[in-house]
Amino acid sequence: MAKKTGLYFGTFNPIHVGHLIIANHMVEFSDLDEVWFVVTPHNPHKKKKTLLEDHHRLAMVRIAVEDYPKLQASNVEFDLPQPNYTVNTLAHLEEKYPKNHFCLIMGEDNLKSLHKWKNYEVILARYSIYVYPRISEAVPAGRQGNTPLPSSRGEKLPQIKIVDAPIIELSSTFIRKGIKAGKNIRPMLSAEVWKYLDEMNFYR
Questions:
Q1: Strand, helix or coil at 12?
Q2: I need a labelling partner for 200 at 20 to 30 A (CA). Which of 59, 80, 88, 194 fits?
């Protein structure tokens, strides 16, 4: 039987406890067997000073998930053509891991812009999407099942699964700003990730 793998895309700059809470909730309270953190590489054509190099962000994700056997880090997009399009990454993963059944994990905010993604119709036709709530458009407590895709038709799509996960209002941007301002943000990161950041003197 195919292993159901949820793909959680992001820059993870840095990965924080909110990311871990969402991923762990998805793997423990849905029918997913595992979750992969897919680290988005730095676009070589866009210089962004606050974005750490790919290998550092990947290293922190690996450190963060070390004690979670159902979670793992993935650098699959590092060697794919840029810019990275999710539909291309999914096709590559299907070819490389034929025994896995891949699904997407995203927040409600990303779901609203899904119609702007490259070949989003292909994604909807081939993959399930597991959606966690955001505070701006929070899912009412206990709501489960299907959700309409924001579109002119507004149809309900069974492949979109709303998961009643905790609402996490913690961002990597907030953490980076806190570090730069000399604030104690250690509770927001796993101990080993904080140690890595602190020793490397990142974001200061």
A1: coil
A2: 80
- Paired with 147 in beta bridges are 157
Q: Could you give the C-alpha distances from 147 to 85, 111, 117, 131, 153, in angstroms and in order?
A: 24, 10, 18, 9, 13
**Secondary structure tally for the chain: helices H, strands E:** 7, 7
pLDDT digits (tens, 9 = 90+) for 140-169: 433 344 444 544 344 468 889 999 999 988
Looking only at the bridges linking them, the beta strands covering 156-162 and 145-148 are antiparallel
What angle do helix axes 191-200 and 54-64 make, rounded to 10 degrees?
150
Q: What is the pLDDT of residue 49?
A: 76
How open is the CA angle 55-57-61, to the nearest 5 degrees?
110
Report the C-alpha gap between 10 and 127 in whole angstroms. 18
> Which segments of 81-148 does DSSP mark as H helices, in order?
86-96, 108-112, 120-126
- Name 158's Cβ contacts closer than 8 Å, sequence gap at least 6: 146
**Would you tell me how many other CB atoms lie within 10 Å of the CB of residue 27?**
22
Burial label, 110 (beta-carbon count in 10 A; 0-12, 13-18, 19+): middle
What pLDDT digit, counting tens, does each position of 7-28 carry? 999 999 999 999 999 999 999 9
Identity of residue 135: I
